[in-house]
């Protein structure tokens, strides 16, 4: 009789240790989300996350652009738990959509779609920028014109050979929308070469444009723009006019 009790307790223990319980369908604990990787400095590995609960423990598969990834045939893709690990990610081969599938005998679930994209920024064209001339006391806008890119950009300008960025103040403003530099009430000390400096954080790359020379226009010459507007270089060096609303710089973005 005592032996039988011991046997019952032993069986209960084995059951608990094996984690056996009511079988259950797979259920995602983690689904893959969009990833933007740098195109120019590929990391050695990139990981798309996936994990699911379920009893028995689920097995995983992945789809790339709606096609099953054949892990036996690929050296670039491997499974780590539910995660998809891509070694030496490259835009041409790996950009696309990914979905994770988790399967056990009770069913299969398909994750949300994650996009894998590659951030980049090309170099500026090297052709020199046309000179911008401005009268003392006038406002001016210097256009940045960033090169083709994918990924968010941030902008700064340098002046002459100084490695320091032009500081924004009550007269100077750099639009983080367009990269353009606005200078109000130009002073003789503003004359010189301005260079736009563009950073793509996701691409882990910065590029600098060709310098734009700013010169002072002698007084008395006719202005290309009415007095209450800013002048700046247009495409090909023509003048552009901008309404001067210094109180509300939002109109200048
Ligand atoms: C997946 O589809 C996108 C969009 O059609 C395409 O640009 C990309 O090259 C494809 N990726 C692969 C790995 O086939
Ligand atoms: C601006 O650049 C031009 C051409 O590179 C150079 O001749 C000139 O001296 C520069 N001006 C200043 C103020 O550095």
Account of the protein in words:
This protein has 253 residues and is mainly beta. It folds into two domains: 24-120, Immunoglobulins (Immunoglobulin-like), CATH 2.60.40; 122-244, Immunoglobulins (Immunoglobulin-like), CATH 2.60.40. Helix content is 8%, strand content 42%. Strands 2, 5, 6, 9, 10, 11 and 14 form a seven-stranded mixed sheet that branches. Strands 12, 15, 18, 19 and 20 form a five-stranded mixed sheet that branches. A three-stranded antiparallel sheet has the order 3-8-7, with no helix packed on it. A hairpin with a 2-residue loop joins strand 5 and strand 6 (67-68). The protein is elongated and about 100 Å long. Residues 8-17, 220-224 and 232-253 have low confidence and may be disordered. Bound molecules: 2-acetamido-2-deoxy-beta-D-glucopyranose (2 copies). Keywords: Disulfide bond, Repeat, Signal. One of its GO terms (cellular component) is axon. Residues 1-19 form the signal peptide. InterPro entries: Ig-like_dom, Ig-like_dom_sf, Ig-like_fold, Ig_sub, Ig_sub2. One of its GO terms (molecular function) is cell-cell adhesion mediator activity.
């Amino acid at each position: 009789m005592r032996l039988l009790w011991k046997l019952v307790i032993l069986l209960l223990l084995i059951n608990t240790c094996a984690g056996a319980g009511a079988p259950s369908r797979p259920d995602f604990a983690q689904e893959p989300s969009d990833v933007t990787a740098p195109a120019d400095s590929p990391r050695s590995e990139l990981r798309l996350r996936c994990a699911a609960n379920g009893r028995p423990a689920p097995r995983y598969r992945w789809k790339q652009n709606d096609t099953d990834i054949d892990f036996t045939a690929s050296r670039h893709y491997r499974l780590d738990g539910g995660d998809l690990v891509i070694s030496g990610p490259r835009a041409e081969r790996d950009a696309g959509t990914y979905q994770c599938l988790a399967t056990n005998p009770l069913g299969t679930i398909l994750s949300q779609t994650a996009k894998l994209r590659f951030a980049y920024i090309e170099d500026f064209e090297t052709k020199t920028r046309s000179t911008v001339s401005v009268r003392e006391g006038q406002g001016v806008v210097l256009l940045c014109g960033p090169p083709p890119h994918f990924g968010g950009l941030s902008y700064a300008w340098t002046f002459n050979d100084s490695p320091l960025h032009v500081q924004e103040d009550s007269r100077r403003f750099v639009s983080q929308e367009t990269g353009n530099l606005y200078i109000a009430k130009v002073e003789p000390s503003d004359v010189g070469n301005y260079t736009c400096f563009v950073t793509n954080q996701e691409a882990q790359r910065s590029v600098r444009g060709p310098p734009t020379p700013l010169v002072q226009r002698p007084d008395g010459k006719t202005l290309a723009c009415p007095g209450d507007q800013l002048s700046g270089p247009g495409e090909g060096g023509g003048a552009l006019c901008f309404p001067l609303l210094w109180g509300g710089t939002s109109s200048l973005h």
